[in-house]
């Protein structure tokens, strides 16, 4: 690298000399004519024919000038010859010429102190630019990811890569079943152009590394980078391997270009470890695995897979690990220990990357020597268990950079790559076709468009762990919410001890606020049977029925209680519903069990602990039947008068605008997505249940109470915007027509009921 720079300097100096020497000669000759104080003209038009002195002097000057010009021409000829020699020499010749005198900042040989000294200067130099990557060349990235937390980390990493990238990307994700479910849904709904995702089953690879004892917090998955040569397709020649706690501050193509610098037997691109771990002096009796000097950090790896396979990498690392484990007994830093032990025996395998490609932010590292300015940063690695709480002089800057991508709107990364055609995607094509069929001049266009909007979805945002009861009576409470209803979560968890599936409609920044809120709540953190599914904001409407469908789709129990977030179920409702499911044979019959709904206008309520106490509060005016003051039709068919004295379940018939809260089997129909915001979203679903001949049965000893809150933005729009109400009426009519086409003659009653209501 240094040789190339010197060659360029010679080329530049020679070029300047060719231009500079003649100019200086002319100036020199011109200036010499002023010795006697009289200017000399070089133009014959200004000659003085009557002056003998002038004629003699002019002749002498011309002869002198001709001689000097011949000398200059000869010097120029020599310089041109030298210049042509400089141009014909290849960069590799310069590199070899300099290699014996000094070490390039990226060469990976020589002592690490002199290597590090050249990094900062080389990083800002034009001579340090990476070779160009083809415009539409696909860059391959491999990531090992397992579990809920790592899946969140991967999203931030991917955002930072997508933000800077200019090339198509192919992510190879070695994932367990949890991470695969989360990330497959996320990327499918993200729909980023020129990005391909392939998954490899991490659980199938466990047997390859399970024989290696590992003390690192990453567990068995922290060893899986060792088997990438076997795991990834044999046709894949090279790949960048990244840890999940990486943040990019530059285009990943710059790192991909470094592959062109590998020579000889170099097959691993690594950055030197920036802590003293492998020096063995961190504490008394500290005995790390063998390593070359400080060793290398494996948070960022460039792998030449084809050459590694030819070298029998699999056999190489296994033999090394077996030998070292005889004395070391276990690894402390997972795969990194084994990589370093192999490198210790085979240093020629490594191409040492400049340390700005892996600035390691664990405690007591030398990372500050990797950069002098913000522009020097390439990759930040949060490789301490403390993560953002790590000690570093510039940690605030690094933390802010990380938080920028953490809260960055992922929808903005759906941009096309100019000049790089994306692979045909059936889902994208169908979506574009559906949107093109809509009339943009339609006053209800935005309502209709929302039905086809694909919202980015992150399932199981927090840790989820629940095994349904073995008696097949388990029930999951299903609800949806936005940021303004977050305060209801703790109360619901106190009232309902069973599993819960929640869809949260949030922006990227709000999702992080929710995460901090949940992690700071003892109530929420003590519950592992609550599935939080983030549906990211897009468009102007609240997609209430999409949210319900997302929450319904991801339950693990045979039954679900379709509720709303601003209702508190009675204490003990979970166990009561499980008994009712058995008593009413819900497994073999099409029933929808109705939980009667009430409301209070008081923000502070002494919640009734029994039906008798609730009836007393109802008589005193502390409680009311739900929407008694504004929309009695919604729950009137429940027949509250009968419920007051009922001791056994009773059946009720469907009526227009009926929208009770029900318990159903998990295979019940989804909510209709055309209804967004406020109005008819539950009514349409209950109508479809009736069309499918569900029997509505009211539970005599169950109840739920709606808690007061400020009006939602959508109900405000419904009340104030005439066009909103017109479009809702249009959508209702279209839904009823669709019902008639789908269910035939039996669905005519819905049109009749609507006309009579």
TrEMBL record:
InterPro entries: Glyco_trans_8 (IPR002495), Nucleotide-diphossugar_trans (IPR029044), Xyl/GlcA_transferase (IPR051292). The chain crosses the membrane at residues 12-31. GO terms for cellular component: Golgi membrane. Gene3D superfamilies: Spore Coat Polysaccharide Biosynthesis Protein SpsA, Chain A (3.90.550.10). It is found in: Golgi apparatus membrane. GO terms for molecular function: glucuronosyltransferase activity; xylosyltransferase activity. It is a single-pass type II membrane protein. Residues 44-58 have a biased composition (Polar residues). GO terms for biological process: protein O-linked glycosylation via mannose. It catalyses: 3-O-{(1->[3)-alpha-D-Xyl-(1->3)-beta-D-GlcA-(1->](n)-4)-beta-D-Xyl-(1->4)-Rib-ol-P-Rib-ol-P-3-beta-D-GalNAc-(1->3)-beta-D-GlcNAc-(1->4)-O-6-P-alpha-D-Man}-L-Thr-[protein] + UDP-alpha-D-glucuronate = 3-O-{beta-D-GlcA-(1->[3)-alpha-D-Xyl-(1->3)-beta-D-GlcA-(1->](n)-4)-beta-D-Xyl-(1->4)-Rib-ol-P-Rib-ol-P-3-beta-D-GalNAc-(1->3)-beta-D-GlcNAc-(1->4)-O-6-P-alpha-D-Man}-L-Thr-[protein] + UDP + H(+); 3-O-{beta-D-GlcA-(1->[3)-alpha-D-Xyl-(1->3)-beta-D-GlcA-(1->](n)-4)-beta-D-Xyl-(1->4)-Rib-ol-P-Rib-ol-P-3-beta-D-GalNAc-(1->3)-beta-D-GlcNAc-(1->4)-O-6-P-alpha-D-Man}-L-Thr-[protein] + UDP-alpha-D-xylose = 3-O-{(1->[3)-alpha-D-Xyl-(1->3)-beta-D-GlcA-(1->](n+1)-4)-beta-D-Xyl-(1->4)-Rib-ol-P-Rib-ol-P-3-beta-D-GalNAc-(1->3)-beta-D-GlcNAc-(1->4)-O-6-P-alpha-D-Man}-L-Thr-[protein] + UDP + H(+); 3-O-[beta-D-GlcA-(1->3)-beta-D-Xyl-(1->4)-Rib-ol-P-Rib-ol-P-3-beta-D-GalNAc-(1->3)-beta-D-GlcNAc-(1->4)-(O-6-P-alpha-D-Man)]-Thr-[protein] + UDP-alpha-D-xylose = 3-O-[alpha-D-Xyl-(1->3)-beta-D-GlcA-(1->4)-beta-D-Xyl-(1->4)-Rib-ol-P-Rib-ol-P-3-beta-D-GalNAc-(1->3)-beta-D-GlcNAc-(1->4)-(O-6-P-alpha-D-Man)]-Thr-[protein] + UDP + H(+). Pfam families: Glyco_transf_49, Glyco_transf_8. Pathway: Protein modification; protein glycosylation. Residues 40-63, 83-110 are annotated as: Disordered. Keywords: Glycoprotein, Glycosyltransferase, Golgi apparatus, Membrane, Multifunctional enzyme, Signal-anchor, Transferase, Transmembrane, Transmembrane helix. In the N-terminal section; belongs to the glycosyltransferase 8 family. In the C-terminal section; belongs to the glycosyltransferase 49 family. PANTHER family: GLYCOSYLTRANSFERASE-RELATED, XYLOSYL- AND GLUCURONYLTRANSFERASE LARGE1. This is LARG1 glucuronyltransferase. It comes from Rhinopomastus cyanomelas (Common scimitarbill). The lineage of its organism: Eukaryota, Metazoa, Chordata, Craniata, Vertebrata. The gene is Large1.
């Amino acid at each position: 690298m240094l040789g190339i720079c010197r060659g360029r300097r010679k080329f530049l100096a020679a070029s300047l000399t060719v231009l500079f020497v003649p100019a200086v000669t002319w100036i020199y000759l011109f200036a010499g004519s002023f010795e006697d104080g009289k200017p000399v003209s070089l133009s014959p038009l200004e000659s003085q024919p009557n002056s003998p002195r002038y004629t003699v002097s002019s002749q002498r000057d011309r002869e002198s000038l001709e001689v000097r010009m011949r000398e200059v021409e000869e010097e120029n000829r020599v310089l041109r010859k030298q210049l042509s020699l400089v141009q014909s020499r290849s960069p590799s010749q310069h590199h070899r010429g300099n290699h014996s005198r000094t070490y390039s900042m990226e060469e990976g040989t020589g002592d690490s102190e002199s290597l590090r000294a050249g990094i900062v200067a080389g990083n800002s130099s034009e001579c340090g630019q990476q070779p160009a990557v083809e415009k539409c060349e696909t860059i391959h990235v491999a990531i090992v990811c397992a579990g809920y937390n790592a899946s969140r980390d991967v999203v931030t990493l991917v955002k930072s890569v997508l933000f800077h990238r200019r090339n198509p990307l192919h992510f190879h994700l070695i994932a367990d079943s949890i991470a695969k479910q989360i990330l497959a849904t996320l990327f499918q709904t993200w729909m980023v152009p020129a990005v391909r995702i392939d998954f490899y089953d991490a659980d199938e690879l466990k047997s390859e590394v399970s024989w290696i004892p590992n003390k690192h917090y990453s567990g068995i998955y922290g060893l899986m980078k060792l088997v990438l040569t076997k795991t990834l397709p044999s046709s894949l020649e090279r790949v960048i391997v990244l840890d999940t706690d990486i943040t990019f501050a530059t285009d990943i193509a710059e790192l991909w270009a470094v592959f062109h610098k590998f020579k000889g037997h170099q097959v691993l691109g690594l950055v030197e470890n920036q802590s003293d771990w492998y020096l063995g002096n961190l504490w008394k009796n500290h005995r790390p695995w063998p390593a070359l000097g400080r060793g290398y950090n494996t948070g960022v790896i460039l792998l030449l897979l084809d050459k590694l396979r030819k070298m029998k990498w699999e056999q190489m690392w296994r033999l090394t690990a077996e030998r070292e484990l005889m004395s070391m007994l276990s690894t402390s830093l997972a795969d990194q220990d084994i990589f370093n032990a192999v490198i210790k025996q085979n240093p020629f395998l490594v191409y040492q990357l400049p340390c700005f490609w892996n600035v390691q932010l664990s405690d007591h590292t030398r990372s500050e020597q990797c950069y002098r300015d913000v522009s020097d940063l390439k990759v930040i690695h949060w490789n301490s268990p403390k993560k953002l709480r790590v000690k570093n002089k510039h940690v605030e800057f690094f933390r802010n950079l990380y938080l920028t991508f953490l809260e960055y709107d992922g929808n903005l990364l759906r941009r096309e790559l100019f000049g790089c055609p994306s692979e045909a995607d059936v889902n994208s094509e169908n979506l574009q076709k559906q949107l093109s069929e809509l009339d943009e001049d339609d006053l209800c266009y935005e309502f209709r468009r929302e039905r086809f909007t694909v919202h980015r979805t992150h399932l199981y945002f927090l840790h989820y762990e629940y095994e349904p009861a073995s008696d097949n009576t388990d029930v999951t409470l299903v609800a949806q919410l936005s940021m303004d209803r977050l305060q209801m979560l703790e109360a619901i968890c106190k009232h309902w001890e069973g599993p819960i599936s929640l869809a949260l409609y949030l922006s990227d920044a709000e999702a992080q606020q929710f995460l901090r809120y949940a992690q700071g709540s003892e109530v929420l953190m003590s519950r592992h049977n609550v599935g939080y599914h983030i549906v990211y904001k897009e468009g102007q409407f609240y997609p209430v029925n999409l949210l319900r469908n997302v929450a319904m789709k991801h339950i693990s129990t045979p039954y679900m209680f379709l509720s709303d977030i601003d209702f508190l179920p009675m204490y003990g409702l979970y166990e009561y519903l499980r008994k009712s499911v058995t008593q009413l044979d819900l497994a073999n019959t099409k029933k929808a069990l109705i939980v009667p709904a009430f409301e209070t206008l008081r923000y502070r309520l002494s919640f009734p602990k029994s039906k008798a106490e609730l009836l007393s509060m109802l008589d005193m005016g502390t409680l009311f039947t739900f929407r008694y003051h504004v929309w009695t039709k919604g729950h009137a068919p429940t027949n509250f008068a009968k419920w007051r004295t009922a001791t056994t379940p009773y059946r009720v018939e469907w009526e227009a605008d009926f929208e009770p809260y029900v318990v159903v089997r998990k295979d019940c129909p989804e909510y209709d997505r055309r209804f967004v915001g406020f109005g008819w979203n539950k009514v349409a679903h209950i109508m479809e249940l009736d069309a499918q001949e569900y029997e509505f049965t009211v539970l005599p000893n169950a109840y739920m109470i709606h808690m007061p809150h400020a009006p939602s933005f959508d109900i405000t729009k419904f009340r104030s915007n005439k066009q909103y109400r017109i479009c809702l009426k249009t959508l209702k009519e279209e839904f009823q027509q669709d019902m008639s086409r789908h269910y035939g003659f039996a669905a005519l009653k819905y049109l009749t009921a609507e006309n009579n209501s």
